[in-house]
Amino acid sequence: MKKYFIYMGVALGLCTSVACTKNFEDMQHNPETLKVVPAGNFLNAILYDGMNTGLRESHRINNELMQVTVTEISTTDLHRYIIKNTESDYPWENYYLTLNNVKDMRASAKLAGEVNSEAVALTLWAWLFQNLTDIYGDIPYQDALRGYPDNQLQNRFDPQQDIYRDLIAKLDTANRLFVTTKGIEQGDDLLFNSVAVPANIIKWKKLCNSLRLRLLMRIAHKSADARLELANMLNAPDKYPVMVNNDESAVLKYTNIKPFQNPFFSYRDYDFNGDRALSTYFVNKLTSWNDPRLPLWGKKASDGVYRGIPSGYKPEQFDDISGIIASTLNVDLKKSNLIGTIMTYAEVEFIRAESIMRGYATGNAQTAYENGVKASVTYWGAQVPADFLARPGVAFNNTPEQVLTQKYFALFFNDMQQWFEYRRTGFPVLPRGEGIVAGVNMPARMKFPIIVQTINAANYQNVVQAMGGDDIATKVWWQK
Asked: Residue 83 maps to which CATH number?
């Protein structure tokens, strides 16, 4: 009984550090322990840890690269496309730590014959591994998560193409496993409340299939099979139900009661927005549309107007830039329960619109595009102005650029999806800052952490050769 409560305290206490993990690794992967700990009891820790990792990287890395924000500290160069090697450590360590719990959740579910918990675990597996492989490229996958009890630290790296193929297959398996007449068998579910309201399990199934659409679209330009499967899914909503309204969006609505707080909740205002302004691109685009999302995302400058600063400014321009009275992120986002996003309904509609426009699927691209725009606006609690869809720049013009630009805004604070999508499509068209060194382009990935190079040297050398290098310009498979 003592073991049970220690393990539960770790799982529900949301431990994410390596040191804390070592305190209970003697119980991980033990079949007897997994019989005691219900699969559903892993869920909230996985959601919270995975979400916090994504939000941290969104705020720190994605927003700077993708011209949401621009730092006003001269020592930070992310907006000039320079990523320090140390930035690689956090997502690698924390996503893999969280995936250990996903692995145990699935194992516990299979031992107990709990098919919905197993399907949820497969869905979470795909969500987290998709982020990992899109950040780094080829990564340990089939041999990953064997550090305990197998003492296997020298794991081989799998090609990203193979990882995507397996993730898509796992999501298909999850779709078939879900039993929509009952909820998750035990535990708690902060995402969809499917334990207390069993009918909400359908939202998990729709998340599963919506994520599958995301993965298929990410590689559609590389795979005829992916294009065919996109069409099959979009044409078979009974077999592959996906999100159809904002209520079905997968959003971890933080209670902001310990321990389930928005990760920025305890930040000082300055730590959240004081050293960075909104970018000129971000502000000007939203201002040109008179977009109702802007006041929800940004704060007016002290002179009462929305004003950004240019991304990628020259280092010698620092004094001039720091003197600009600029807009910043709205501090209300620190306590918002809307930024904990796995995926939204708006993204589904933009995937649908792009699929139709590129000839992958049939349907009405304009309807899908407009549904996506309206869903993104109303998701944030704003009303869609009566003339909004007819305004210049918003009115449908039948181009992928327009769809993907609106998708960029819909992915606000959605982990690093803006960055991933830009690398896939080249949209939105972001202005190139004067301080970006000639020949340097948007980073294509993060480098592998130093620890990987030291404790897994042989496999590291193999993957570097296979990928063509280990620097931020090395393109991942789906970007080539």
From this structure: 1.25.40.390
Residues in the chain: 480
Q: What is the pLDDT of residues 399-416, one digit of tens each?
A: 999 999 999 999 999 999
Query: Do 299 and 328 meet the contact criterion of CB atoms below 8 Å apart?
Result: yes
Q: Judge whether 129 and 162 are in contact, CB under 8 Å.
A: no
Tokens coding 172:
């298909």
Q: Check residue 461 and give its pLDDT.
A: 98
Q: Where are the beta strands (DSSP E) in 103-170?
A: none
Range of the domain at 154: 2-262+338-470
| Reduced DSSP (H G I as helix, E B as strand, rest coil) percent helix, strand, coil of the chain, to 5 | 55, 5, 40
pLDDT at 187: 86
Distances (CA, A) of 236 to 53, 211, 226, 348, 401: 34, 16, 15, 15, 27
* pLDDT value of position 257: 87
- pLDDT < 70: residue spans in the chain: 1-36, 147-152
Q: How far is CA 362 from CA 59, 68, 199, 220, 308, in A?
A: 36, 33, 31, 15, 40
In our burial notation (b when 16+ CB lie closer than 10 A, e otherwise), range 73-82 reads eeebbbbbbe
Neighbours of 202 (CB within 10 A): 17
Q: Considering its fold, how many domains does the chain have in total?
A: 1
What number of H helices and E strands is found in the chain? Answer: 20, 6
Residue 397 domain flag:
yes
Query: What single letter denotes the amino acid at residue 236?
Result: A
What the block records as the tokens of 435 is 């301080």
pLDDT at 30: 56
Residue 309 in domain: no
299 within some domain: no
Q: Is residue 165 in a domain?
A: yes
Residue 43 is encoded by which pair of tokens?
A: 């869920």
What pLDDT is recorded for position 12? 31
What is residue 260's predicted lDDT score, i.e. its pLDDT?
85
Q: What angle do CA 244, 246, 248 make, to 5 degrees?
A: 65
Query: Which residues have CB under 8 Å from 329's CB, separation 6+?
Result: 69, 272, 273, 276, 278, 297, 298, 299
